[in-house]
Amino acid sequence: MTQFFISYTRADRQWAAWIASQLEAAGHSTVLQAWDFRPGSNFVEEMDRATTNADRTVVVLSPDSLASDFARSEWQAAFRRDPVGTARRLVPVQVRRIDRQGLGLLGPVVAIDLVGLNEPAARTALLEGIDPARSIPATEIEFPGATEAGARAGDDPRGNRPILLDEAHGQRRWRVPPTADQGYRRLTEVAIACDLLIRTWNSTPLPSAFNLMPYAVVVLATAPQGRFQLTRDEIDAMTQYVNGGGGLLALSAYTGDWHHEANLNQLLANFGLELNRDLVMPSTAVAHAGRDDGRGQVYEFQPDSPFVVGATPVDAPAGHHAASAMTAGVRSVLALSSCSVTARGDAEVVLRSAADSKTFEPEPSGVGVAIHHWEERRTGPADVVAVAQPGAGRVVASGSWKMFLDRFLDAPGSDNTRFLENLLLWLAGDA
Asked: Are 166 and 218 in contact (CB under 8 A)?
């Protein structure tokens, strides 16, 4: 029986616990700070004993562990005992994308890569990687050309990192729904071009924070008729996922949560973002008894709609890498049925509507969320896309889920496709 010391940082504690549980189930013993360092014990003494007595040290490898002085001292203790890797005392297990140029002495050490794998595949990779025997496949090795073609089609679980597209909270209630088989078909192509892969989620609740970790990005689009209601557990899971290094793309529509009886704002409030109770339309829009464009925009899904508003990048202050990365090569993006977005604290705006656009607010029909009519409130630019970087994670909030419909991505003269590519790469940590 081999004893493993699991070295990790707080951001990766769920990964560390999962790794330890798999090793224990396979007959090994582990030392894990969360399980074995009990109240009243001396932390330094316990850490010294663990690093000294362990046969092997597993390093949970992520951007956080590479930035941690404590984590570095833990794996360096194992490295000193086996500097050339003869006894394989040091075993890095990569759970999130990292900058390999910053690995230093860890660079030459072969790691077990769990990034982008589902749980069965990750378990197999972990246990096979721990096994000191040669890793020879038990099945016939496929011809490489066929394997590459399969990966591009999304059949290879290691070919592309997955994006989780939520389709379980009423999104199909829209006339042209933001789903992978209807309104968002082109999203799959854009994702593959970014070395990502769309996976859909069709049952509630959303996965736990731990089960979300293999996903590079989670996409949550609002839904009508009170269908989009995240539970408290789902909100907590998404918050933990983002703070632990995940990417979240939150997509809303006119009036934000209000008319649709949704609760995206309960999640976004944790990151300094808010979807507002309004509607952003072009300068030609009007709302009066004879013509109410606020009602008309609901049933429009085309980029040539008279209710489409153009949005342009906000000039990013020096040092604001997020806005610069997301708007590189982007001149104008088309948005439809968008609410405005508020960014607070360290959150920042990346897209703003045209200077002559108009913002309307709904007047309720009595008590409830029915809209009696729209009132024009102001003329001028409105913020329609904003971003935040809480903890190790990244969040984008857009007032318009329609801006990423297939028809908008294919619209001549627009940069919607380029913006989506930049957005996905930034959320996945690649920009």
From this structure: yes
3-130 and 152-427 in the same fold:
yes
Render pLDDT for 368-423 as a digit per residue (tens, 0 to 9): 667 878 889 999 999 999 999 998 899 999 999 999 999 999 899 899 999 999 99
Q: In which element (H, E) is residue 13 found?
A: helix 13-25
Q: From the DSSP assignment, how many helices (H) and strands (E) are in the chain? A: 15, 21
Residue 249 pairs in a beta bridge with 219, 396
Preceding amide of 157 cis, omega within 30: no
Collapsing DSSP to helix, strand or coil, 78 comes out as: helix
The rounded distance, in Å, linking the Cα atoms of 109 and 81 is 14
User: Topology of domain 152-427, per CATH?
Assistant: Rossmann fold (3.40.50)
**For the chain, which residues make up each domain, given as ranges?**
3-130, 152-427
Domain 3-130 classified CATH 3.40.50.10140?
A: yes
The per-residue pLDDT for range 117-132, each reduced to its tens digit, is 788 888 888 888 887 6
Of 178, 380, 363, residue with least CA distance to 280: 380
